[in-house]
Amino acid sequence: MQRPVHAFEQTSEQSSEQTLEQAGVRTLAAELPARAGEDVRLAGWIHRRRRLASVTFVVLRDRSGLAQVVVRDPATVERIEEYAEETVVEVTGKAVANPQAPGGVEVGEPAFTPLTDPAPTPPIELWRPAVNAGLPTLLDHAPVTLRHPLLRAPFELAAAAVAGFRETLTGLAFTEIQTPKIVASATESGANVFKLDYFGRPAYLAQSPQFYKQTMVGVFERVFEVGPVFRAEPHDTVRHLAEYVSLDAEFGFVRDHRDVMEVVSSVVGGMLAAVGERAPAALDRLGVELPKLPPRIPELHFADALALVGADPDEPDLAPAHERAIGEWALREHGSDFVFVVGYPMRKRPFYTHPQPDDPRWSNSFDLLFRGVELVTGGQRLHRYADYLAALEAAGQPAEPYATYLETFRYGMPPHGGFAFGLERFVARLVGAENIRQVTLFPRDLHRLAP
Amino acid sequence: MQRPVHAFEQTSEQSSEQTLEQAGVRTLAAELPARAGEDVRLAGWIHRRRRLASVTFVVLRDRSGLAQVVVRDPATVERIEEYAEETVVEVTGKAVANPQAPGGVEVGEPAFTPLTDPAPTPPIELWRPAVNAGLPTLLDHAPVTLRHPLLRAPFELAAAAVAGFRETLTGLAFTEIQTPKIVASATESGANVFKLDYFGRPAYLAQSPQFYKQTMVGVFERVFEVGPVFRAEPHDTVRHLAEYVSLDAEFGFVRDHRDVMEVVSSVVGGMLAAVGERAPAALDRLGVELPKLPPRIPELHFADALALVGADPDEPDLAPAHERAIGEWALREHGSDFVFVVGYPMRKRPFYTHPQPDDPRWSNSFDLLFRGVELVTGGQRLHRYADYLAALEAAGQPAEPYATYLETFRYGMPPHGGFAFGLERFVARLVGAENIRQVTLFPRDLHRLAP
């Protein structure tokens, strides 16, 4: 399923590709090593200028990487003085082998054509290999700071990961859906929901596509969705966002939650493979190694997990320190950066959760921990209409606001389950980001609504 | 890039696939013709029961299609009486060749195991080949009515089309992005925007990712996004939705809008090819033929388009009747269901539109009409900072609310352009839907906020 990143430049017989970059006319920085001895035309941003006594080095940045341009002509050296960093230029010249140049080939005898007015000094020095600015500066000026090769890299990983998510599920005959983000009632949790004015009526932003994806199991059996979800999180932490990209899947005719865990394992494997195949340069730049994913992800029952970490057996949930300890156990005992915790107490799970048949204190649900932090939540759902009515009554909730959702189960639904996780959290754990905002394109939180 | 829809069942050596359906244990309806003489286990919804004097026919529906089950055993015939349409069951039996059965193979000697309680009578008769109910009924009961093979088909086409959109652009080295849907100001048009309470401050739902995708051209050169957009449309028409799925692309280092039109042509071609390859059964069910897309889509300048339809040369836009006439012209003269109209008057285009260099009354922008209705809008954008300041001033708008957006251009942006269109509109034209709500999963409009 892989296509090379620069398929475009390599298949010049296709007409749209010829036109787009008039194949052979624009050379990308990454292609320069193969063009020694040829006339080339590059285009990109002035990444860095370095004026020495007899020569000026210009580093040009384009989507593929960096290219070194060597300027010796005094008039051109003077002109370059005007082209501050981030000015967009075209450069024509000759590709020349030079073992000292990055990639072994540089551009000599250059002529520059500016495509914009000279740029002012950016809020951070984009040419510096390391990023020293604080997160608020980086986020406030994201339109420019994201151009830094290190700061854009997480979003290359995210694009690859989401492609891997879709490909894995498409290969398993799942159908992609897009469900509404404006919803009539704040049903799933009630709290932390954004309210909006919908033609004079109250409406809400969807906290998850949970109800819709279950409904669509009745139509397609197997569905997935990639889309934004919204949480009015009043917490200002390194882990919380008010808007994030949720990767959701749901499917029918399962035996129980174990079938869901199998699909989760395939999906995580497919995402990691896609990252390795599609974004190796970004992994390199970040110095990130792909995590250890054994053929079979280890698992622990929730009760055994509590015992393992020495917690009170009546604890209803795992504390962050417990999750870390379980993550360390999985790595130590099973050589795995991933571990399933299975059977979370019913009282901590949403009303549609399927209980563990032999002991209804526990549920047929699970979390997948990635390096000691919860990544995926999933499980088997109730599927019988009568069970939904009973679960809502037990939760002290009226059935009426759920009328449409319940219609799904009234007319026959197979045993089913699914899972969800945040794309940003996946990338954060992958690159070891301390703050989820580092891997979120234009994050939204308690304080931040722009850019 | 194509994988067969049932790859799952065909590659039983993969562990997750074995588990999911215990390959060979569950047979899909579409696989039945290949299983004559074997014992099979099917699972799905009771689509239809028909009791004759000595035999009852049960049609079972699963995600792959319909299977006929023949019941002769009197006790089983009686039991079947309880399993109303939409009850979910497992059926074991013997696959038997019968030239009269759909697909030539049916299931005999069946044993039924219900997976749900018997379902009540659905709001429409899902087993009837035609759909006679009115749109309000279909939409009110969408969780059930979408199960009808004709009503689910448009969403199979949509899933295929969106996959084709992504594959085409990924093949052209575009990077996928996800940008925020909660934004600080209602900048692009000001009108028709949903307002929400963002932690006590006003915020808005994004009407398009326009500003963000342009910004990201500065980072990745070529980007695309598939995501929801929100329009507080006060019009109750067959064409308007309050929320829809927007397919957006934007890219840099273009010569002008013609490079954008080339990519639009490739994308539309890729989407139609994907629909043909991935969803042939849905096309068949709907009796839809793929539209005529010539190697080169015909085009007309806006001024020539006005002349062609006999409109006043000072008209600022094309009326729906004009668009229809132009669509007929393209089909008649060029054998094309698609036609570009190029150069719309600047005064009708947004402030970031690039003027036509030789005559600034016109713009470097275009619409793509599909069967006489506007499908795609795109064009070249301004890229120089000074041009943005001048354009905002000419439009009588202050620069301050655009501060973040303008930062992008301040620090150097290449000549660039892009396009956008609604997934639902594409599917509506493809299947000839009279009302866009017929091809929208859970539509949102002036009156409708549920299901």
Structure summary:
With 451 residues, chain A is α+β, with helices and mostly antiparallel strands. Helices cover 31% and strands 24% of the residues of chain A.
Chain-wise SSE layout:
The structure is a homodimer of 451-residue chains.
Chain A: H1 7-10, H2 15-21, E1 39-51, E2 56-62, E3 65-71, H3 74-80, E4 88-97, E5 105-114, H4 135-140, H5 142-145, H6 149-171, E6 175-176, E7 182-183, E8 195-198, E9 201-205, H7 210-220, E10 222-230, E11 243-252, H8 257-278, H9 280-286, E12 299-301, H10 302-308, H11 320-334, E13 338-342, E14 365-370, E15 373-381, H12 385-394, H13 403-410, E16 416-422, H14 423-431
Biased composition (Polar residues) (chains A, B): 9-21
GO biological process, one term (chains A, B): aspartyl-tRNA aminoacylation
Binding site for L-aspartate (chains A, B): 188, 231, 377, 381
Question: What is the structural class of chain A?
Answer: alpha+beta
CATH architecture of the largest domain in chain A: 2-Layer Sandwich
Question: Helix count of chain A?
Answer: 14
The side-by-side strand order for the widest beta sheet of chain A comes to 6-10-11-16-15-14-13-12
Alpha carbon gyration radius of chain A: 26 Å
Sheet having the most strands of chain A? 8 strands, mixed
